[in-house]
Structure formats: C-alpha cells, structure tokens
Design goal:
Length: 481
Amino acid sequence: MALRSAEQYLESLRDDRVVYYRGEQVKDVTTHPDVRVAAEHASLDYHLAEDPKYKDLMTYQVPETGEVFSRYFKVPKHAEDLLRRHEMILTGTRAGHGVVLIIKEIGTDALFALSIIAKKMDDQFGTNYSERVRNYHQYCQQNDLSMATAQTDVKGDRSLRPSEQEHLDYYVRIVDETKDGIIVRGAKAHTTSAAVVNEIIVLPTRAVGEGDKNYAVAFAVPANTKGLKMIVSPFGSVAPSDFHHPVSSHHRLMESLTIFDDVFIPWERVFMKGEWQFAGPLANTFVQFHRFTAISYKPPLCELFVGAAELIAQYNGLKQVSHIREKLTRLINYLETVRALTRASAYECQLVDPGVAVPNTAITNIAKFYFASNYHQAVGWLQDIAGGLLVTGPAEEDWLNPETRPYIQKYLGGAKGVSTENRLKMFNLIRDLTASDFGGYHEVLAIHAEGSLEAQKITIYREFDAEPCIEFAKKVAQIRD
C-alpha cells in the first residue's frame, strides 16, 4: 500500500475498537460528534502527504526499490534527517492551527528507541528483538499505519515499586505466557490519540529491579485487540461555536486511560520480556526522541501567540506603547529561543548503534524546559496585551441578533480603520488559546506533557558534561591537583 489517503485512514478506524466517552461506548469514532474531530484533525497527516506542495517534505523514496513512504518512518541517520523531521512536525502543527497531529510522530519515536535498545538486548542476551522491531517497523511503513505510544503507567502509590503496590496492575505487567505469546494486564494513562490510531506501542515507564521484571515489557497491538479498552478524557473537548472557538471547534487531541484487560500479544509483537536491566534505558531513549518531537511542535503555537499579540495591539491602538512593545519583544524572544534550541539539538545529534541519529539530549531538554517554564508567563503577556474583553465580550448570539449587533458594532470598535468584527475575532482566538477549556488543557500540557519540569532538570544536569568547565575554572584560578 505504501501511502494511504485520508479517507482510507478514516475507514481503517471503523474496526469495532472499544472506546468509551462520557459514560457511553462509542460505536464509530469517525462519526461521533466529538471524537470524530480528533480523527479528522489527525487525518491532516494524510492530506499533507497527498498535497503537491508538501509531498516532498512529508514522504521519501527508497532508492533501492523506488517505493514511496511517509517520511516519519525514515530512520534518522544525520542532522539533516532530524531537521526534515522537525520541519514535518512544524508543517503538520501549522496545518492543525497550532495543534500537533501526532499519529505518527510518537509512534516512530518509539520505533527508533526500540531499534537501539533491541540491539543492546540482543548483544547481551542473544535474543532476536532487533528482527522483530525491524519487521514491525516495515509492516507499519508498508501499510502507512497511524500509531500511538502508551508509556505512562497509572503508578498508584508513587513511593512504592510496581510489585509493592496495593494493586499489582498499577503498572502494565506480564501475567501469563503461552507457546504463542504473552498475556498482559494493567493500564496506561495520558495515551494521546489512542482512540484514533491503528496501532498502540507499549513501553515501560521507568527503571525496575529484578524483582519487578514482569513489568519490564514492551509490545505493540492493533487498537481493536480483544481486551483492549480506552476511556477517553473529555478535557479540551470540542467547542460548539466556530465564532468563539476558531481553533478548538476544528482541532483537538484526545487522551485516554488505556486498559489492557488480559490482552494476548503474539511473540512477533513482543519487544521486551523481563529484561529488567533495559526497562530504564528504553524509557529514557524513547524520551530522547519524544522530547525532540515535543519541541518541534511548540513553535507554531508560539507563532500564534506573537501574531495574535501583534494584531490585538494594533486593533486596540496600543502598538507604540512602550510596555506593549516590551511584551511583544518578549514573546518574539520566547518563540525564537525555542526554535533555535530545537534546530541546535538536531545539529548536535549523536549517531548510535545501529546507525540512528539521536538529538542532543541536553539541548533538547533545555529547549523543553525553557518552553514549559515560560509558557504561563507567555500566556500572561498575551492576555495583558489583549485586555479584559477576552472574557467579558458579548456572545455570538448577540452579534448575530439584529437588535443588539448595532450596539456591539458601535461600542466595541477599536483603532481607526479596524472593523469591530475583526477585533472580536482576535479576542476570540486569544480566548480560545488561553482562557477556555482548550486553553487550560494547553497550560497543563505545557507543564506535564513529555515529562515534568523536574524530569527535564534532572536530565539536563545528568547529560551536561561539566568537566571542561571545571578544568577551565581550575586553570584560571591556578589550581593544580
């Protein structure tokens, strides 16, 4: 098949998967009034691959066979590959009006990490995981499948190891083994897009000891596998008004509590089975790619902040006011710092066995930390520039009512030459991005998605090589050991 159309992708989701939303089972994720928006948003990935303007970016040709595949499946070999991947994610997120598409990005992040760790396990234990990962990668590529990654276990009491928990299934674990495969039980939280993808890849969330080796498990399952159930979160849900919510009425992500209720996994889809020594390395290697994906989809949202701030300042007649210009400058600095650090992490990549380019871990985490730790301040600058009409303006019904519209037209005008309607539209965009259910969702996402601020700080300190700085300080201070 190689490349699918958006229609083929949507059709592939009609497969009797078990999805629950707001207390009811969803019969068809492509027709449900809320869930379908997530599916249609994700389908932009397939539209872009068909668009002549973006086809060269979103696809690549294998020289040996002439076959054309989604570029997401291309294993990065050098900085240029990572930069192209970054540009793909940027392009998809802009097409989603600041909302990342994320139905191939995270899945292939997992495939790249699995290829690295599978080689290490094979070398140490004589397993054949590399062949399984390679075959599965080719299967997903050949069929142009969409994928989610389920990594974060629900954890229970976080002070306890997996086997010490009140409920042993707080972490996904192997509960049985047959001649044909393994049976797993447990649940993963925050699984983005699971309800609207073809495949779900499961990875360990943390390092474990030998006593917890049944929790050291990695595998992949089709989304309609027997025993797999998804309870989808309603937060950040679709808003009804296109006028008030120009982004969230058309674009959304969807997270689920992903439950494995004694799910059978055939051997060819098992990529780790009890090799507890590599649970932590696999989790961390995935994060190295995943956080690069994260910082690659941040700039379009920052671009929206800058553009909206510039326009509302103009519409309010405040563009030349010094404190407004200062905040505009800070927003530009925020955008360009994230963008520059993302590109730097690609340029400073490291090639690891079996020939995979890994983005620079320290720079990737610095970029993610900078974005996350400054996001709420950026929201504050944008809201301050806009003003209180973000949350006190009239309803769409009042704007459409011929009795009230003249008053709104007259009294909510802004700078000379700016239409009241355009000013209201800009307030609505900023409200949707920063002061709605969707906006609150993004504020939490900024802090916790792809790892917490503390996780990034730990990684930055661990990965940064301070020794040259120490030696330099010793030299200047004339310290001789």
